[in-house]
Amino acid sequence: MLFTIDTDRIKPKQPTDDLMRRVAGGDMDAFAELYELTKHTVYCFLLSVVRNRSMAEDLMQDTYLSVRKSIQHYIPKNKPMAWIFTIARNLAYMELRRRGSHPETNLDDLGETIPAKEELSGLIDRLVLQKTLQSLGDKERQIVLLHAVSGLKFREVADVVEMPLGSVLSGYSRAMKKLKKILNEEG
C-alpha cells in the first residue's frame, strides 16, 4: 500500500489581514467568516494538544472569545492563523497547568477531527489515519495534523508549535516515514 497525502488538494482558504481589520472594526459577518475559515484547524490543533474532545471544544470557545476581545492587538503581518494559534496554544497550556495534568490520551477523539473521506477527496481512509496517528509523538502528530490535514504551510506550523523550521521539516519527514512503515506493514 502506498501512502501519500497531496496537500495541494485539501488546502483551506486562509484568513487575511483585511478580514482581521473588518473583525477589529466590529463587523460580525467578518467574525463569522473568520470562525468558519478557521474552526476546523483550530479545533484540530487544540485536540492535538489536549487530546480530550470536550476540553478542546471548551478551549475553542475560549479561543474565539479571546480573539474577539483582543483583536485590537492584532498587528497585520499576513499571519492571522499564527496569531490565533498563539491564543489557542496559550489557553490550552494554561488549562493543562490549571488541571495539573498531562493531556488525556484518548486518541479515539482524533477521529472526530479528521474530515470525512469525501472531504479529503479520497486521499486517505479515515480509520487508517486515526490508527496510524496514534503511533506518532505529540509534536509529530501536531505537525502532521497542521500541515497535511489543516493545510498550513511549514513556516506557519513552525510558528504554531514554536519550533525552528528545520525541526518542523525533519519532524514531518520522520512522521511520514513512520506512517508509511506502519501502512506498509499492514498492507
Summarize it.
The protein has 8 helices and no strands. With 187 residues, it is an all-alpha fold.
Description:
With 187 residues, the chain is mainly α. The protein has one domain (7-186): Orthogonal Bundle (Rna Polymerase Sigma Factor, Chain: A). It is 64% helix and 0% strand. It has helices at 17-24, 28-50, 53-70, 80-99, 126-133, 138-149, 154-161, 165-186. Helix 3 crosses helix 4 (80-99) and helix 6 runs antiparallel to helix 7. The longest helix has 23 residues, at 28-50. The chain is globular.
SSE order: HHHHHHHH
Gap from first CA to last CA:
5 Å
User: What is the tally of beta strands?
Assistant: 0
- Domain count: the total is 1
CATH topology: Rna Polymerase Sigma Factor, Chain: A
Percent of residues in helices: 55-70%
Summarize this structure as a short list of keywords or feature phrases.
single chain, 187 residues, Rna Polymerase Sigma Factor, Chain: A
How is the secondary structure organized here?
Blueprint: H1 17-24, H2 28-50, H3 53-70, H4 80-99, H5 126-133, H6 138-149, H7 154-161, H8 165-186
Helix pairs in contact: 1-2, 2-3, 2-4, 2-6, 3-4, 4-7, 6-7, 6-8, 7-8
